[in-house]
Write a structure and sequence with these properties.
Shape: rod-shaped
Number of helices: 2
Radius of gyration: 38 Å
């Protein structure tokens, strides 16, 4: 009987010990999932989601190698680190592609790192209304929508991510401030980066390549990008709509459409290369561009820079070897200084209804005009316009008014003016020397303080135009210059109408009248020929050696 009682006690004790062991056996670290730190998945916590649910501020979650079929939701949690035990050994993939791989909502101070692979979901990571989220060295690939979506005033820092082959944009930033560095967004089905709705992105050492839409697309948002590249994307390298952008030390190369497109936007670019695009290098509509500090716009199949209803500052930069014009302006204003526009496929600068100021800028080596202005204004200071196969300057219906010195000054250059007025300049209307050529058709040169036209070893032609009311001579030609006037009028100038020294002049169907000096005066080394030309009403009509 005593043996039976003892046996019953032992059995009962064994049953009690067995239940207690099953409920309380400590996992690795001596604790179960709720109290373990670090929480090791699956050792302490069978799933990532359970580790997240049981996490407390200051915890670290370590995921052992393997593939985890989970859609992980982090809600109302703070101050946790989640990482792979070894980089590249952990893959997280939801059971359904309609679920995001990771979702952060209303959470703070989470760090996710060490090569976790996030794939096969709707979005790889969605961050909503969360702050101080840090993503380091992750791989986000082959998701159905965006790889990474940062929304609703979330504050996120990204470094070292590889975001590839997602069906929509690689990165979406909507209404959130984000800092990102050393990250690649490539081969995605949409934009490399879509930044919108007052989002703010600060980027460095980023790569946006081979995306099916734009490399970077900024809509009603602000971007700062340095030491980065956007290349070989199907559409634009960077597109801005109602946006602001600052780019420095970056390269935008070989994209399928334009390098940069800006619509109702403001863009500043420094030491940046925009080259090799199928359309324009930079295209502006109702926008402002500040391009400076050794930037290079080259080898684009359209224009180097095309601007419509926009304003530009180009300083210490080079525009070269573009298939069409170097610069094309429509209804725009431009200030170009200390720069070079060279060897483009058409004109150096082509302007219509625009205003241009240049300083110390060279326009060189174009197969057409160096500078063409149509109904535009220009102020040139320093620099050279040379070695262009067309005119140095072509002006169409363009007014050159009220400059502090000459209206136009040429040396070893050529200018063609069709229509327009050269008026009110404080020295000469037009000054040309050293084998320069000036051709005016239907142009009026009037009211300039010095000569209307002064030539030194230069050629000048006037057809259907007028040179009048200038403060000195109408035309003053010296040193083997050549003058041709057809159906033109030289009148009411303060001194001689036409004065020649060792030069030639041919007048046909023209009028020289009412000048305050001699109508036509020439020295013995000069030759004047007149056909159907009237010389009348001048203080003296002809010098004695001239018959006209």
């Amino acid at each position: 009987m005593k043996h039976l009682v003892c046996l019953a006690i032992v059995v009962a004790l064994g049953l009690w010990v067995g239940f207690s062991t099953e409920a309380q056996i400590p996992r690795e670290g001596g604790l179960g999932c709720p109290n373990a730190n670090p929480k090791i998945v699956p050792t302490n916590c069978p799933t990532i989601q359970e580790a997240v649910n049981e996490s407390r501020p200051g915890d670290t979650i370590i995921i052992l190698p393997g593939t985890y079929q989970e859609s992980v939701k982090v809600e109302n949690k703070r101050e946790v680190i989640i990482e792979a035990q070894e980089p590249g050994t952990v893959t997280v993939k939801p059971q359904s592609s309609s679920e995001h791989v990771f979702t952060y909502r209303n959470s703070q101070k989470w760090t996710m790192r060490k090569g976790i692979i996030l794939t096969g979901g709707a979005r790889g990571i969605e961050i909503n209304n969360s702050t101080e989220i840090v993503l380091l060295d992750l791989v986000i690939t082959k998701n159905q929508a965006e790889g990474l979506a940062i929304l609703s005033n979330s504050q996120v820092e990204v470094q070292g991510l590889k975001i590839t082959e997602n069906n929509s944009s690689g990165i979406l930033i909507d209404s959130a401030p984000v800092k990102a560095s050393k990250t690649t967004s490539s081969n995605n089905g949409g934009d490399g980066l879509l930044l919108q709705n007052k989002g703010v992105a600060t980027l460095s050492e980023m790569q946006f390549t081979n995306n099916k839409a734009n490399g970077v697309n900024v809509n009603n948002a602000s971007i700062t990008m340095g030491n980065s590249a956007s290349s070989t994307n199907a559409n634009d390298g960077m597109a801005l709509q109602s946006a602001s952008g600052v780019i420095s030390d970056s390269k935008i190369l070989n994209n399928g459409k334009r390098g940069i497109f800006a619509d109702r936007s403001a863009l500043s670019a420094s030491n940046t290369q925009v080259s090799g695009h199928s359309q324009n290098g930079i295209e502006l509509k109702n926008s402002a561009l500040d391009l400076r500090n050794k930037s290079l716009i080259s080898e684009n199949k359209g224009n180097g820079i095309s601007a419509d209803s926009s304003s530009l500052i180009v300083s210490t930069s080079t525009v070269t070897k573009n298939n069409q014009n170097g610069l094309l302006f429509q209804s725009s204003s431009a200030d170009v200084s200390d720069s070079e526009v060279s060897s483009d496929g058409a004109r150096g600068i082509d302007m219509k209804n625009s205003a241009l100021t240049t300083s110390k800028t060279n326009i060189l080596g174009h197969p057409s005009d160096g500078l063409k202005l149509d109904t535009s204004s220009v102020n040139l200071s320093g620099g050279k316009i040379a070695d262009n196969k067309g005119e140095t300057v072509t002006l169409v219906d363009t007014n050159i008014l009220n400059n502090g010195n000459d209206g136009i000054q040429l040396a070893q250059s050529s200018a063609g003016l069709r229509g327009g007025t050269v008026k009110g300049n404080k020295a000469r209307g037009i000054g040309a020397q050293d084998r320069s050529t000036v051709a005016l058709t239907g142009t009026i040169v009037t009211g300039n303080s010095g000569d209307g036209v002064q030539l030194v070893a230069a050629s000048f032609s006037l057809r259907d135009g007028q040179i009048s009311q200038n403060g000195a001579r109408g035309i003053n030609a010296t040193d083997r210059s050549a003058v041709s006037v057809a159906n033109g009028t030289i009148s009411d100038n303060a001194k001689d109408g036409l004065a020649l020294a060792n030069s030639t002049a041919a007048l046909n169907g023209s009028k020289v009248q009412n000048n305050k000096g001699t109508g036509i005066t020439a020295d013995a080394a000069s030759v004047v020929t007149c056909v159907n030309t009237t010389v009348s009403g001048n203080a003296m009509n002809l010098s004695p050696n001239i018959k006209c």
